[in-house]
Amino acid sequence: MAASTLKWCAALLAAGLLACAPPDERLAQRASAAPHAPAAFTMPADEPMLALPDLMALVIDPAAGVLGPAFRRDPQRQPRTAEAWQAVADAAAELDRAAGVLEQPGWSLGRAEWLRAVAELRDGTRAGAEAARLRDGSRLASAAQRLQVACDGCHARYAPTLR
Predict the structure, then answer these.
(1) Which of 34, 36, 39, 61 is the 20 to 30 A CA-CA neighbour of 76?
(2) What is the model's pLDDT at position 47?
(3) What is the pTM of this model?
(4) Is 112 buried (19+), middle (13-18) or exposed (0-12) by CB count in 10 A?
(5) pLDDT, tens digit, for every residue of 94-145?
(6) 6, 5, 90, 19: which is closest to 48 by C-alpha?
(7) Domain total of the chain
(8) Taking Cα atoms as reference points, which of 148, 54, 158, 64 lies closest to residue 111?
């Protein structure tokens, strides 16, 4: 997926133009929205909602794909140019924003395990951002490994068929 598409999706998420909720919670959110609630927190019933598979496909998977090759410690795939390191920093920023979305109450609903999984994602993401800032390949490999562990753990619990 093109970087411009990722930025567009992230901008829509940040602006609140896409609502994010797991599919089974969409109707409950709409039904529980108070008539006096601010417009930013309600969405008309005919507006599309972004479900977890959409967030994974549009934001998380492509961004993780930028950081993932470093996990294999393949010297040929390490960022070498300023543009490549910027792509790593941008991917880390996308993952950090996605983690922020996944921490929202509509996603977590107080599930401590879910919040721990999101915290692991965020820790690996921030380590990747720091590696990009320092342009340190070994730190990037370590951050990518942390992300891989976070993703594997989350998928094992919440999406075992996708591992």
Answers:
(1) 61
(2) 47
(3) 0.68
(4) exposed
(5) 999 999 989 888 777 668 889 999 999 999 999 999 999 999 988 998 999 9
(6) 19
(7) 1
(8) 158
